[in-house]
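Teaching assistant here, posting this on the class forum so everyone can see the example we discussed in section. The complex has two components, and the goal was to see what a joint structure prediction looks like when all of them are supplied at once.
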Amino acid sequence: MIYYDKVTMTYNGGYPAIEDITLGIDPGEFVSIVGHSGAGKTTLLKMLFAELFPTAGSVYFGSREIASLSQKELLEMRRNIGTVFQDFRLLPTKTVYENIAFAMEVAGKDDDEIRADVPHVLELVGLPDKMWSFPRELSGGEQQRVAIARAIVNQPDVLIADEPTGNLDPINTLDVVEILKRINDLGTTVLLTTHNKGVVDSVGRRVVTLDQGRIIRDDKQGKYVL
Amino acid sequence: MTMWVTTKRIARYGLIGFLRNGFVSLSAILIMTTTLFVIAGLLVASAALSETLRQLTNKVDVNVYFATDADEEQVLAMQRSLESLPEVALVSYTSREQALSDFRERHKNDQLTLQALEQLDENPLGASLAIRAKETSQYESIAAFLDAQHQAPGGEIITKVNFHQNKAAIDRLTAIIDTSRTAGFAIAGFLILASILIAFNTIRLAIYTSRDEIGVMNLVGASRWYVRGPFVIAGILYGVVSGLVVLIVMYPIALWLGPASERFFGTFNVLTYYTTQFPLLFLVIMGTGILLGALSSLLAVRRYLRA
């Protein structure tokens, strides 16, 4: 369902951030992408939600090449990809409820659906009583769980988690990994980047290892090896 | 999802953003209030200036004095031919008798002059015509016409045209009027431009603080108007609130300055201007505020809206 075809991406004039990458991901997979800082993990993900475009090669989502999508199709595609980041990226002037509702509104859900689904998804990430708090009133772990709730509330086909545990303590890290696994069990494809060995080993699924912009390992039942 | 639901949601987020970003909204409103005050002040000042200029212009005229033995019919004929000139706005006739009684009235506290007048057998004053031009610059050609009449046969009934005495004053007044108009427009233009740029920049900074938020909205897949709309609404709200503040605060100021302005300008009263021209003021102030707020927001948010 996701396919990188001989993709190279070079930032303005410098060394290629990723070079000649071919990678296929099937529906329902849980793929951990590991590597040192600067190995190209984030660049690889950014091309999936069209924040970056490859300088050579193509990226496919479903049967469509992302670079060929119209503005409208691009928005629709983004609504079909949930994203979670190291720095949470919540809307600071909106409450937890509104943050999640915003993603639903953007996807065209009506008010009744929103009122029903938001408490439900907060339950799923274990934050049912923080609905009316603002992001600044929450701990890092709680904020990340809100971000995950927002990412999955529209039941996307793919969840992208870019270093989601980078700012969290070990307990919260474990919680977040558990939530990601649960989401994957419900059928969502999960792409996780991390350089946390513990996280990768506790997931125990497919591991793709990047080094200096190239894939150096791709293990079906991988461990963190670098 | 209907247009109506989308519009409602955008409007609600605009209002929420306006209220929750209290400090940012406050500073944007303060700057915009200042801008609108400058514009309102210029409106009033230009009205006062044109009213004063109109009065001054009205005070300028050319007087033609006739000999005491001039036939009244000849004078009235002259009046008719003057009135037919395109430059002439008004010609008023003062008869010999009227001139005498005006003279008496003017000198009623001056017994010596009045006694001297009594010594004369007959009225020493001639009839006169006071000519007012449509524009101060047109007195030159009217005076030329009168000079020609003076030279022509039968022109001896004219004893004096006071244009040449007034010419220096009229020329200076014309120059002052022209210069103050040009300078007034230039200063007004400069002030308005400067305050608009400051207001624009403040709103841009306000939105700059939200650039991460805009990035997140893009990422979630929000459409262009779903992101821009609330900022534009907030910008319009800055304009509405600032406009109302200016219009409300102007009233006590006009009340306070009213009598003083009338003493200073003659007939122009700030309070009368405020009450009679309120619809115009309302339209200009609110219109500028709303337009400025909406446009600044739109331009600023466009910068941070990729994709």
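For the discussion questions: Residues 170-185 of chain A form the longest helix (16 residues). The helical segments of chain A are 41-46, 71-79, 96-106, 111-124, 140-152, 170-185, 197-203. Think about how each of these relates to the inputs above.
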